[in-house]
Write a structure and sequence with these properties.
Chain A: One of its GO terms (molecular function) is ATP hydrolysis activity. The complex is a heterodimer of chains A (371) and B (332). Chain A is an alpha/beta fold. Chain A contains 13 helices and 14 strands. Chain B starts with a helix and ends in a 10-residue tail after the last helix. Chain B has a single domain, classed as MetI-like fold. The chains are: A alpha/beta (371), B mainly alpha (332). The interface between A and B is medium-sized, with 29 and 21 residues.
Chain lengths: 371, 332
């Protein structure tokens, strides 16, 4: 198998706030192969967006990438080495900010943001914005860039692209604007597109159209995608492989089918139980109890143990190892849960958590939900 | 097309505003205590003389008749005759208004040219020493009365250092023959600018301070917008982001403030003109009030009102020019 185009290893990004250090991304690793659509799934606050901005090296103050390696086609986007006094410092191979800007951003890796209503500049014409990014990232003349822009607008399904090229963003609907943003990303001919919840702000019909469009164009241009979402339905529809994030960590990673049908991590299990599935019928959906804890002081041991229905005493003490637990018929299936480790999970006593009865208290009983 | 339509509708909307300004000016002047006739004729005029004067100025008419007379006069650009100067009010205003506009223009230019870069630098270096210095300067500028700044400037730069003159403002359109040491019109302009520096700083400091703060905060806000992040993610350089992608959006609040500050600046012009003995509108209005010259008071107040209305219209129009959403006509 060929080398993955994007390889993230043990990436750590922290925010240094007055309340303390927020470990927003805490040692995640994943790969993206050529032409592959990789999902990054998790609840709000899991660190998905911080992970993507770390890959682009666009983390904003007070955030900082503090460790790990991100390799894109052999180039080190993030790379650290040990300095003489044992401190981590940027390695000489790590691209400078200027190199990132000129060689990577837009040209190699493009990004699609969540909210199309905010992502276009209201005072410039849509076409001019498109043309500018094409000019910067494809080294073409302004005239040629305009042709590319109009072609691309047509490609993403904007009617009358020559006319719409001269329109302002406020003259477009949300779905149309997201098409423009997708046109922008594809027109720069990057090999990787990071889509940060690109359909979250759209209604379901428009979301469906956009997903179909992305699938078609992805096949046509063979672009790789990192698709960030909290919606497992979207994941099932378009992703090849999925990474599930919880509180700054990736806790499970598998091919999309394996993730849905041979689920290993209790968190992924819980996520799947909380949404309706066409392949299973249940009387009542089962939401995940409690809210995700703060990333300033993450729970000890397994970070999910406070909400885990299967939590046992050992979960509080042992931080699980992220390891391959694939069956012979799976390509690879990584999970981070003590259930799959020899640390005494089977003999440990079960733990009172928000997900087990002791904490769920009156709310559940009042609804008559006696499991 | 949207912009043209917007401009026309905005201009039409200003007509009732101007009529309102005229009405209020008229009523307020009428309400001023004291009898102008008495002032014109001295302590104990004969009843006959007083009657004659009243008839001459139409003061014997009832209020509503006088009001409509005045309204029609204004439409014909006749603001009456100044009682104090004995010349038409329009002539006096034509003489003085350009001086004040010259001063306003120069101090707003000074304020904008310093405030915009200072605000942007502060925003880019938030909470760094440059930002703190600009904050202190702005605080000083907002909290210091302009006449005090004027007097201090005169003491330091005219009295002690003798670099800049404190009185006798020379206007750039004066003929070279009337100006000492100016060989041609360019010489006059140079001298005029030299004279204008202290009054400009005096009047412009307050505006500069206010503009700097607005520029800083709106720039900071725009730099956090998604479209700025998008531009960054597509490899646009920071310089270009500030100059192009953020700049236009960041000027919107400033444009509003510039329009509103015009009233404040007119008030400041009264003080500045007094401190530097400049014969502009500010001193004219003071003279008019002190001498109960009711025609002149009405005329000058009306002009101040008009200047403000024009300022607001210009604000709206520049807004429409900068932000396409304002003049958008709704057809998609």
């Amino acid at each position: 198998m060929s080398e993955p185009i994007l390889k993230v290893e043990n990436l750590k990004t922290q925010f240094f706030t007055e309340e303390g250090t927020v470990r927003a991304v805490d040692g995640i690793s994943f790969e993206v192969n050529e032409g592959e659509l990789v999902g990054l799934v998790g609840e709000s606050g899991a660190g998905k967006s911080v992970a993507t901005s770390s890959i682009m090296r666009l983390v904003e103050d007070p955030g900082e990438i503090v460790g790990g390696t991100v390799t894109y086609k052999g180039k080190k986007i993030v790379d650290f080495e040990e300095g003489p006094d044992g401190e981590l410092r940027r390695s000489p191979e790590m691209l400078s900010n200027e190199e990132m800007r000129k060689q990577i951003r837009g040209r190699e890796i493009a990004i699609i943001f969540q909210d199309p209503m905010e992502a276009l500049n209201p005072v410039f014409k849509v076409g001019a914005q498109l043309r500018e990014f094409i000019e910067i990232n494809r080294d073409v003349s302004s005239k040629r860039a305009k042709e590319i822009a109009v072609d691309m607008l047509r490609e993403v399904g904007i009617p009358e692209p020559e006319k719409r090229y001269e329109s302002y963003p406020h003259q477009f609907s949300g779905g149309m604007r997201q098409r423009v943003i997708i046109a922008m990303a594809l027109a720069c001919e990057p090999d990787l597109i990071i889509a940060d919840e690109p359909t979250t702000a759209l209604d379901v019909t428009v979301e469906g159209q956009i997903l179909d469009l992305v699938e078609d164009l992805q096949q046509k241009y063979n672009t790789s995608f990192v698709w960030v979402t909290h919606d497992l339905g979207v994941v099932a529809e378009i992703c090849d492989r999925v990474n599930v994030m919880y509180l700054g960590e990736i806790i499970e990673q598998a091919d999309v089918d394996d993730l849905f049908h041979a689920t290993r991590h209790p968190y992924t299990e819980a996520l799947l139980n909380s949404i309706p599935r066409p392949d299973q019928s249940v009387d009542e959906l089962n939401p995940i109890k409690g809210v995700m804890p703060e990333a300033i002081n993450p729970p000890s041991g397994c970070r999910f143990h406070t909400r885990c229905p299967e939590a046992r005493t050992v979960c509080k003490e042992v931080h699980p190892t992220y390891q391959d637990v694939s069956d012979p018929d799976e390509s690879s299936h990584f999970v981070s849960c003590v259930k799959y480790e020899d640390v005494g999970y089977d003999d440990a006593e079960s733990l009172d958590t928000e997900a087990t009865d002791a904490f769920s208290g009156g709310l559940v009983e009042a609804r008559g939900d006696g499991q | 097309m949207g912009r043209l339509r917007y401009t026309i509708s905005r201009l039409l909307q200003s007509i009732p505003v101007i009529v309102g300004v005229i009405t209020i000016t008229f009523l307020l002047t009428d309400a001023i205590p004291g009898d102008p006739v008495q002032i014109m004729l001295g302590p104990s005029p004969s009843a006959q003389q007083a009657e004659a004067i009243r008839a001459k100025f139409g003061l014997d008419q009832p209020l509503h008749v006088r009001y409509f007379n005045y309204l029609f006069d204004v439409v014909r650009l006749d603001l009456g005759t100044s009682l104090y100067y004995g010349v038409p009010v329009t002539q006096k205003i034509a003489e003085r208004l350009p001086v004040t506009l010259y001063l306003l223009l120069s101090s707003f230019t000074f304020a904008l040219l310093t405030a915009v870069p200072l605000g942007i630098i502060s925003a880019k270096r938030r909470n760094k020493p440059t930002d703190h210095i600009s904050r202190v300067v702005a605080l000083f500028g907002v909290s210091t009365p302009s006449f005090w700044i004027g007097l201090m400037l005169i003491i330091v730069f005219s009295f002690w250092l003798d670099i800049f003159p404190a009185t006798n403002l020379i206007l750039p359109w004066e003929s070279p023959a009337n100006v000492d040491g100016a060989a041609n019109q360019l010489g006059v302009i140079a001298k005029s600018i030299h004279h204008l520096i202290l009054p400009t700083i005096t009047l412009g400091t307050l505006q500069m301070a206010a503009f700097t703060r607005i520029e800083r905060s709106s720039m900071l806000e725009v730099l956090g917008e998604e479209y700025v992040k998008l531009a960054r993610a597509y490899g646009v350089s920071e310089t270009k982001i500030v100059r192009k992608h953020a700049f236009r959006n960041a000027q919107l609040p400033l444009i509003t403030l510039v329009g509103l500050q015009l009233t404040g600046a007119l008030g400041g012009a009264v003080l500045t003109e007094t401190v530097f003995s400049i014969n502009g509108m500010g001193r004219l209005i003071i003279t008019a009030i002190q001498n109960q010259d009711f025609q002149l008071v009405m005329g000058t107040t009306l002009v101040f009102g008009l200047v403000f209305v024009i300022g607001v219209i210009l604000t709206d129009l520049s807004y429409a020019y900068v932000d396409p959403r304002v003049s958008f006509d709704g057809s998609e």
